[in-house]
Amino acid sequence: MNGAQIIQRIAAGLGLEEGSFESDPEAKDPWIRLPGDKLAAAAEFLKGDGELEFDTLHCVSGVDWPGDDPPAIEVVYHLTSLTKKHWIVLKTRVARAGASLPTLETVWKAANWHEREVYDLFGIRFEGHSDLRRILLPSDWPGHPLLRDWEWPETWHKIPVKAGRQMTDRAESGQMTGVGPFD
Amino acid sequence: MDKPGSTGFDGAPAVTLYDEELPPDNSYAFSPEDLEEDEMILNMGPQHPSTHGVLRVELKTDGEIVKDSRPHIGYLHRNFEKHAENIDYQGVIPFTDRMDYVGSMGNSLAYALTVEKLLGIGVGERVAGIRVITAELQRIASHLLAMGTYGMDIGAFTPFLLCFQQRERVLDLFEWLCGARLLYNYNWVGGVSHDLPEGWTDKCRRFLDEFVPVLDEVDKLLSHNKIFIRRTADIGIITPEMAKDYALSGPNLRGSGIDWDLRRDDPYLGYENYDFNVIVADSPHGPVGSCWDRYFVRVREMYESVKIVRQALDRLPAEGDVQENVPRFVRPLAGEAYCRSEAPRGELAFYIVAENKKPIPYRVKGRSPCFVAMGLFHEITRGEMIADIIAIIGSLDIVLGEIDR
Amino acid sequence: MITRFRQIEMRLMGPLTLIPIVLCLVVLGTIAALPMLAAVISELVGDFVPAGLQHLVVVVLGTAGFVGILALNPIYSIWLERKVAAHVQDRLGPMRVGWHGLLQSFADGVKLLFKEDLIPRDADRVLFRLAPMLAIASAFAAFAVVPWGVREDGVVLAVSNLNIGVLYFIAITSLGALAVLMAGWGSNNKYALYGGMRAAAQMVSYEIPTAILILVVVAQVGSLHIPDIVAAQSGGLLGVGDWLIFQLFPLNLIAFVLFFICGLAETNRTPFDIPEAESELVAGFHTEYSGMRFAFFFLAEYGNMLLVSMLAALLFLGGWVGPFGSNPLIFFLKGFGLVVVQMWLRWTLPRLRVDQLMGVCWKYVIPISFFLLIATTVIKGLM
To answer: What is the chain B residue with the closest CA to A155?
Structure first.
């Protein structure tokens, strides 16, 4: 099935009306954006439906959009069907403050660690998650670093950790950064 | 004088830069109070000879039996994703090299493919051929490392050195190609950093000819050794359902008997034109999905990679500028791309979100196959013995650089 | 100042720990009485030493010489092991220190001697210090009954020509398990504890078939005296035909193979090296040891390797009996030949798991050795 068909099928299966959800079947990776409360039902449907059969959750990523209206964190689920050989991207947006989402661990067990990572780096709580601990960072690390407005602490346990911004500054001003092909 | 054993550094109290309530301490999953009689918590790692890096596994043991286990990762976390938000598109490539540091060609290839997808550019036939050759040679090198260290995990030291000799020759080829032996920065967006030097293809052919007999020998020495089979063929069983549920990929997935390979099922770089078999475990020695199956899939995949490299060398266009498609500036339109490729350890994917015409990616996420594989570690170790823990870690073929990023 | 004194103390600690070992051996040596060496040495020193002290001097000199020889053995065994490993693995091994790296082990020994001797803060200090001594003492003391040959005048070339030599051997080698257990417990380290427990289980299990297989030989020869056992194997075709492994073919051959397997297990060599399984238990029972104490475990391991090889040669391969007459050289060749086989196996085979190891012992080796014991005694009785 191609992206458009998959999106249609999802909309029909969940009883979504035209216009109540966003999607882009023509994108490089066709995606469909659902509200957070539809997520669990959508996951169940995507996995259980005989024609879609999305048996693997490939990846879960968070993207922070503080500048959008309203400010939101987007959680992106990349799904694969090994049996049907097709792909879809499932997106959802949550408010930045006190963000929480239902866990998909009950549908795809792979979600366990991915959601822990999103929790660790973005601070989104996944309701019903069996083991929601930080995974990459120490438990007393301040804040969630992949939020765009996160600030580096100067030190952590007396260890200086603040990163410089020279590379970014040079890149933004159009200079070469010394690692690209033309340097 | 200081008390003996004192380092003079008293662990400072937790920093409270943020008023937010700190999450629960995650350094231990099991607590001594919950232990039953005869149980013990054993910390394996992060400094341990066989955890393949700085993995720390917390085991709840009863004698030699492991009742439960929890892997703890993050000891090699180098905030790749945060770095990537601050560096231009091409500048991220060296950082990707450092993810899976024994399979760097595969990493930079996956990243380059993603950016190319984002930009909507392709590469010429020669570049695609060179990329296939280097990716498959890297697969051979990486699988050799996996095979050798796996033998060492089980206690056989000799295959390790035999494998490393051959791996060294691949690294020599790469060194001749781009000057680096481990972290190549070779696959650029739209091209590769260096064209093949003169005589390189002949040397590569010679390597392949001499490599196959050695691989046969090591295979005979290790794979079918009775002790080796008894140590690995009925432990760490990953059933096909589990493998799908946990989204395993690469040799780990095929070791569970699932016929899936991105090179065939979602081809990139013209892999559809090459004649090779997708290796799926047939488990002659025990239940499907055992450690031996995963190990043996890797061994047989090396033969397939040799086949692919031979074909690629044969049909490589003689002339061609390897950098003709390299863009002067990488400034994609707003959008996102997710591109997966079959790296030596499984499906490595990058998810890149771009802002309109900005030189710096808005968000780069690396989807690491080893990270995913570690996610099911606690399921397959329950009830096994301590020695099996090592065998299972080895059979998943993890690299901590990629798990922690 | 204090720190400096401590450093000096630590430097001295390694060599100084040799003294109790030597004392240990002197005591054991006195018990064993050293008749043969005594005879040779007293001939030499008889003129210079008063008669009352002669026995003491003989014992001390004999033991010191013997320990010297045994301390050199690991040095060359390690060199040999590294060379065997290197050639199995298609490389050269040590080549720099001396001709083909012959002096490499001396350099390593000197390095170990001057390394800081660490004892973990929470270790049981007594057990921790005692364990390496006991390990090396048990390995060396067992050599007291290993005869190297017989002189033409009938004098047995052994430290102690004990008439129940085989029994003494079984008793003394059991001490090795105790040493490993002490090291494992005393280190206060979980890996060391695992190593110690594994070693205890393994050594105790494999002692049973070892003893039974020795009984197979004893029952056929009818003596616990090792020179008698060798004498029963002399003669025959080319001086080879009457070796025990060729008698009652193939019963004794099987017994020899099983004995060698048990020997591997008792010396913790691959494929039975689970007590120090590097990839699982870091270094097993000697995880916390450093410097000379660590070296002692190494000396003990190589001593034990040579010991079981020599014993296998004596019991099954005719000891010093060979095609070109009988002399100690043949015996040494056989002994070191088996040591090389042990090394070859180590660099070829993977390691068994602990339950499989015990399974091999209790399910296969012990029943077969009992069968061999019964079969050989019945056949001997009928003959």
So the answer is: B15
Q: Report the alpha-carbon distance of residue B120 to residue B129 in Å, rounded.
A: 19
In chain C, whose CA is at the least distance from the CA of B161? C89
Q: Mind telling me how many Å the CA of A134 is from chain B's nearest CA?
A: 7
Residue of A nearest to B327 (CA): A181
CB contact under 8 A, C2 and B225: no
Contact B337 A29 (CB under 8 A): yes
Looking at the domain B80-404, which fold is it?
Cytochrome-c3 Hydrogenase; chain B (1.10.645)
Looking at the complex, does the CB of residue C201 fall below 8 Å from at least one CB of chain B? no
Q: What is the pTM of this model?
A: 0.84
| A3-51 confidence digits (pLDDT tens) | 788 888 888 887 777 777 788 878 888 888 888 888 888 888 888 887 8
The burial class, CB within 10 Å (0-12 / 13-18 / 19+), for B216 is: exposed
CA A180 to chain centre: 28
- Tell me the CB-side half-sphere exposure of residue C82, using CA atoms within 13 A: 16
Do the Cβ atoms of B353 and A63 come within 8 Å? yes
- Looking at CA atoms only, how far is residue B96 from chain C in angstroms? 29
For residue A97, being part of any structural domain is answered with yes
Q: How far apart are the C-alpha atoms of C218 and C226, rounded to whole Å?
A: 9
Q: Residue C146's closest CA among C208, C73, C57, C81?
A: C73
Residues within 8 A of B (CB atoms), A 66-125 only:
76, 78, 80, 82, 85, 89, 108-110, 112-113, 117, 121
Task: Name the residue facing A157 among B11, B90, B338 (closest C-beta).
Answer: B11
Residue from the list B154, B161, B388 with its beta carbon closest to the beta carbon of C91: B161
Residue A24 sits in which domain range?
A: 3-149
Radius of gyration for chain B, computed over Cα atoms and rounded to the nearest angstrom:
22
* Alpha carbons B355 and B334: distance in angstroms, whole number: 5
Among B202, B214, B131, B225, smallest CA distance to B167 is for B214
Q: What's the pLDDT tens digit per position in C224-260?
A: 888 888 888 877 777 677 787 777 778 888 889 999 9
Number of compact structural domains in chain A: 1
Number of alpha carbons in the 13 Å side-chain half-sphere of residue B205: 10
Q: What are phi and psi of A69, to 5 degrees?
A: -120, 110
- Residue B59 to residue C281: CA distance in whole angstroms: 13
CB atoms within 10 A of CB A46: 27
CA-closest candidate to residue A165, choices B303, C218, B83, C307: B83
Annotate A56-82 with b (16+ C-beta within 10 A) or e (fewer): bbbbbbbbbbeeeeeebbbbbbbbbbb
pLDDT tens per residue, range B176-212? 988 888 888 888 888 888 888 888 999 999 999 999 9
Distance CA C235, CA C341 (A): 26
Instruction: Establish if A165 belongs to a structural domain.
Output: no
C-alpha distance from B247 to closest chain A C-alpha (Å): 5
Convert C46-111 into a string of H (helix), E (strand) and C (coil). CCCCCHHHHHHHHHHHHHHHHHHHHHHHHHHHHHHHHHHHHHHCCCCCCCCCCHHHCCHHHHHHHH
Tell me whether residues B152 and C279 touch, CB distance under 8 A. yes
Interface contact B245-A145, CB threshold 8 A: no
Q: What CATH code is carried by the domain that includes residue A123?
A: 3.30.460.80
Query: Is the CB of B86 less than 8 angstroms away from the CB of A85?
Result: no
C-alpha span between C348 and B158 (Å, rounded): 6
Residues of B in contact with A55 (CB under 8 A): 244-245
Contact C219, C380 (CB under 8 A): yes
Is residue A113 in a domain? Answer: yes
Closest partner CB to B390 (pick from C90, C273, C280): C280
Cis ω on the peptide bond leading into residue A70 (within 30° of 0)? yes
In this prediction the ipTM stands at 0.84
